[in-house]
Amino acid sequence: METENMGWAKFIKLGLLLPAVIAVAACGTMGASDIPAPDPVDTPDYVIGAGDQLQIYVRDNPDLSVSLPVRPDGKISVPMVRDVQAAGLTPSELGDELETQLSEYVREPTITVMVTGFVGTYSDQVRIIGQAQQPQSLAYRDGMTVLDALIQVGGLTPFAAGNRATLVRQRGGESESYTVRLNDLLNDGDIRHNHQLRPGDILIIPEALF
């Protein structure tokens, strides 16, 4: 009888310990693929980049109002003013610069600059390379996630090894690499792998080995 009671005691102890062991194992699995949250991005004012599409409105002068892209060299040309640096300026700063230069030809010009197509500065872009349907650089948006980026590039190709994707991030002047399980995110809906992105991130999607 004593032996039987000891057996039951061991069984009860095992039953009490098993949920704790499972919980610890589950916590370890979740943490293994976690990527540190990105540092807060302080971008109060949008900075124009090469490739951005601008709408420039000159009040009371419709002939001077134009819609045009920022050239690869970062400059724009508007009626009566050539080669104005636009990349690296905010829309309001560019408007002030255009007002200064146009004031030689127009009395007290008032100019509004609107960005209608966004690319952003080079350092603000997120790059998706490898086995994406449309590999490209994307303009970073506040709150942008891996899933947002994948939607913009059309998802993965049939040859992608999504669970071996790598996110490369600059942190403190050093490059850090993390594994991102894209198949688990897209096919299984595992939201743990929908990490937040930050400006300058590179998502590398390798090809599957057959």
Word description of this protein:
The chain is of the alpha+beta class and 210 residues long. It folds into 2 domains: 53-117, 2-Layer Sandwich (wza like fold); 122-205, Outer membrane lipoprotein wza fold like, CATH 3.10.560. The protein has helices at residues 2-32, 91-102, 146-152, 182-188; strands spanning 53-58, 66-69, 75-78, 81-85, 111-117, 125-130, 136-139, 165-171, 174-180, 202-205. Strands 7-6-10-8-9 form a 5-stranded mixed sheet, covered by helices on one side. It has a 3-stranded antiparallel sheet with strand order 2-1-5, with helices on one face. A two-stranded antiparallel ribbon has the order 3-4. The longest helix has 31 residues, at 2-32. The radius of gyration is 27 Å and the shape is elongated.
